[in-house]
Amino acid sequence: MATTSDIRNGLCIRYNHDIYKIIEFLHVKPGKGPAFVRTKLKSVTTGKVIDNTFSAGHKIEDVRVETHKFQFLYNDGEFYHFMNTEDYTQIRLLEAALDRPELMKEGEVVTVLINTEDNLPLSVEMPASVILEVTATEPGVKGNTATNATKPATVETGAEVNVPLFINEGDKIKIETEKGTYKERIKE
After folding, report:
1. pLDDT digits (tens, 9 = 90+) for 161-184
2. Domains 2-62 and 65-125 agree in fold
3. Strand order in the sheet with 172-176
4. Rounded CA gap, 81 and 125, in Å?
5. What's the CA gap between 121 and 105, in Å, rounded?
6. May I ask the CATH architecture of the domain 129-186?
7. What is the pTM of this model?
8. Span of 2-16, 27-41, 99-113, 134-148 with lowest mean pLDDT
9. What are the residue ranges spanned by the domains of the chain?
10. Which SUPFAM superfamilies match (predicted)?
């Protein structure tokens, strides 16, 4: 059993007959009244995100997890197939278990959280950023750079990302996976 002081991003807990991963938290100590922890929880089975507030010192049931490196192989609609990079065993996960499946290209190495009680995969953690090639975007208009104007661009995985006007088709860009936003252009 853990308490609210043990809460951190990525911690998996059992709550309301389901397993949730903490994706955001904030310890709040108001001037009046008891302290509490405001959390954002993501269900590892359905992918649904809920907000919850725990009072300080509240007991929470944490779930022991192991992390393993897996390589993304392919997806066949609803299932995404991965291979363990150590022993080459393969697993398949539903799209709901993935945070940003649209930013994952074949061969990408991700971290998979596995429940130690039943050895079932819980969720997939993407790297902090991915490098993808722009496959389609409108050409930028010269002289329209006074403001931080952006335009939509489609990357090689099919995801759409807003990029600055100077980005062209064929450019490689770094995308922050947590928010799905453009970070920088990669020079070759």
Report:
1. 888 888 888 889 998 888 888 888
2. no
3. 160-164, 150-155, 129-137, 172-176, 181-186
4. 15
5. 20
6. Beta Barrel (2.40)
7. 0.70
8. 134-148
9. 2-62, 65-125, 129-186
10. Nucleic acid-binding proteins, Translation proteins SH3-like domain
